[in-house]
């Protein structure tokens, strides 16, 4: 029995991250069709675009899928209305207080998971009635918690703080990684980077190819005076690093960031001016694969590693 599979009605406890500029209906439906849970990333979509992606996802898969909604979204009321009216059954929320929208979603028959970066906020989630918690370590790409707690430290801490179904995220891209976090108390995994670099991801191929060439240490958590964000090395990365080193003000950092940086980098493939958000685990990935190939590889490796661990001698 796996509580994540039972909760969402999926075959494998593998959830695809709802990433900006990567997670459209093609990626979400492919992950769901492969046995996991695909998520449409609402964070980079206008309301009418989200509505279109939900409808296309329904046409592309008869299996469960969900929508990831950053709670800091400017048109949040309209987005929440859309997921209810379109009959979305699963919503993952992040970047905000789960108390604000959880009861509304639950009253409309929607299962809710919330992303946290600390055990303290996991307890808050349980108090407001979420169905599951995603514990995301700071290895993850994109926006991160200020605590900078690694996944291997965060998962057992959150597991002690709550009995809710627990999903681990941040730095997980393999079956071995999936087995490791399950040994610490997770019951499922959410993978962003691994799926962002698949054929079905809506990210630009130039961005994907660049990320598949990254080595160990080629990403770093920057923009800490604004919202801590993990970026891959590049021109914009260097500009941010230099500004932070000389103690640039919040106003200067906002001006440097400007608007549309992540779209330029991820969606348009502009490696010079774009914000290249990707996780640390990209350094392990060097093959351009389809979602189906990725899921099969993860499950095969998970089962193989489980057999190897079972043969270890007792101490």
Structure description:
This protein has helices at residues 3-8, 25-33, 47-60, 76-85, 102-107, 119-128, 151-161, 175-183, 193-196, 205-211, 235-245, 250-257, 261-267, 291-310, and strands at residues 14-16, 38-41, 65-70, 90-94, 111-116, 132-136, 142-143, 166-169, 188-191, 219-222, 229-232. The chain has 315 residues and is α/β, with parallel strands linked by helices. The chain folds into two domains: 3-203, TIM Barrel, CATH 3.20.20; 205-281, no CATH class. It has an eight-stranded parallel beta sheet. Strands 7-11-10 form a three-stranded antiparallel beta sheet, with helices on one face. Helix 8 (175-183) packs across helix 14 and helix 11 packs antiparallel against helix 12 (250-257). The longest helix is centred in the C-terminal third of the chain and has 20 residues, at 291-310.
